[in-house]
Amino acid sequence: MITSARTASDGDRQRALALLRRHGWNATSFQILEPGFLYWFDGRDGHQTEACVAYLDTGRAWVAAGAPIAGPARAPEVALGFVAAAAAHRRRACFFGTEDRFATAAPFAAMRIGEQADWDPGAWDETVRGTRSLRAQIRRARAKGITVRPFDPHLFAEPAGELRAGVDRLIARWEAAHPMPPMGFLVQMHLHTELAERRFFAATTQGETLVGFLSMVPVFARGGWFVEDLVRAPEAPNGTAELLVDAAMRTAAAEGSRYLTLGLAPLAGAVGPWLRALRRTGSPLYDFRGVQAFKAKLRPRGWAPIFISYPRGQSGIATVYDALAAFARGGLLRFGLQTLLRRPAVLVQALALILIPWTILMALAPSARWFPAPAVKWGWVAFDAALALALTSLARRWRRGLDTVLAALVTADALVTLFQVLAWNLPRGPRNALTFTVAAISVIAPSLVALLLWFGRRSGRERAS
Predict the structure, then answer these.
(1) Which structural domain range is residue 233 located in?
(2) Within 10 A of 197 (CB to CB), how many other CB atoms are there?
(3) Of the chain's two ends, which shows fewer C-beta atoms within 10 Å, N or C?
């Protein structure tokens, strides 16, 4: 029997949890119990559910969270059934965050998307003793009065409770300080499901101010743990994160666990050429190298490759798009616009760079065809050159006043350009595709830049303060 629920009920979630206890091997498998996931169950008869796949429906694809929750021998068969079910609903399908065990056994293509470090908690004490820099960071945090202690997960059950309110405030501050808006799918911060299974650690100052926390969830089939969230306040002393990890490792070791992971370092390691290019170009929005470096300095036991697995013949680019759409709750376009407004300096710098070839082309363009007079042409050249310099200066250090002046100037630029296009270029110039294209770019580009500057002022000022 194969069933697919359009919304996950509590009953479905409990069925998934029962399967996790038997087959939850993927490091992120416990996360399928968090809100937003749908469950596709595969059972060989009407009474015993043998496997399930947790997924998000993006409207174009079913994006599964890791490998199927099934025994290793059955997982490829279950995955094929899931792909067929997705196709019946006119959806593509993929499995995000699979590990070698599934990626090499399933009859799918596998695109490497990063690496995942893991530790043996039983060897952590030896690791600390043998790593001078790690010991120094832990000592530094303790010297600043930071204390880490576990706390009862059930304290989160009361929404108005002091601890939960403090953690929620810390999460809100952490999210506001990052360039990208909060994401969904496997990186959403939701700490309130299946509390009995979780472990929490709080880092506090001597005055009992919460400055960091760590949460970890079980990886049942490995008898280990996945550090799902590690958050520190901006003012937390150096070493706070390391001290939290130290507490988690020692707790896991005391419970006899031999496996712990901090999860995926995205785009780390030997990824494909265009993913390497994405790693370089996306660094202003996400610190790919920093995430990998933090995990590396904790001296992991090893690094395992992580993949997106998808049917052979399906486009790899479309598959990556589907995965990104799952993370960008609300749609990729909306997520992109929110990101730009949260980190306008990134786009402002890009626009300044684009202005350079545009200004050169303008200087080389024949005056008689494109401008009412040579003086108008050189006036625009001088204005755009000065604007490129000013935008570069703003992107490097956001300043109050300069953002408003530039927003006003670019708005005036858009209005004057529109007037010139309507009053001179279109009536007097040749009516061909080139004329209309250049006119459209001349009007639309400064209009979009003006909107970005006006709406991005608040975000830019907050990050500069």
Answers:
(1) 116-265+291-298
(2) 16
(3) C
Q: Which tokens sit at 345? A: 């300096």
Place of tokens 């808006």: 181
In a domain, residue 105? The reply is no
Helix (H) or strand (E) holding 104: none
Task: State the Cα–Cα distance between residues 133 and 119, nearest whole angstrom.
Answer: 18
Taking the mean position of all CA atoms in its chain, how far away is CA 138? 28
Can you tell me the distance from the alpha carbon of 427 to that of 144, in angstroms, rounded to the nearest whole number?
Answer: 71
Contacts of 303 (CB under 8 A, 6+ apart): 115, 116, 117, 268, 269
- Total structural domains in the chain? 2
- Distance between the two ends of the chain, CA-based, in angstroms? 58
Q: Tell me, what CATH number does 203's domain have?
A: 3.40.630.30
Tell me the pTM: 0.78
Indicate the SS3 state at residue 99: coil
Residue 426 lies in a domain: yes
Q: Give the C-alpha separation, 431 to 439, whole Å.
A: 11
pLDDT tens by residue, 337-368 = 666 666 677 778 778 888 889 899 889 888 88
C-alpha separations of 208 from 146, 149, 162, 232 in Å: 9, 11, 12, 14
Task: Give the number of residues written for the chain.
Answer: 465
How many Å apart are CA 8 and CA 197, to the nearest integer? 20
pLDDT band at 47 (very low <50, low <70, confident <90, very high): very low
Q: In the structure encoding, which two tokens stand for residue 98, read together?
A: 């699979």
Rounded Cα gap, residues 336 and 166, in angstroms: 30
Q: Is 305 helix (H, G, I), strand (E, B) or coil?
A: strand
Residue 203 counted as domain residue: yes
The answer to whether residues 59 and 329 touch, using CB atoms and an 8 Å cutoff, is no
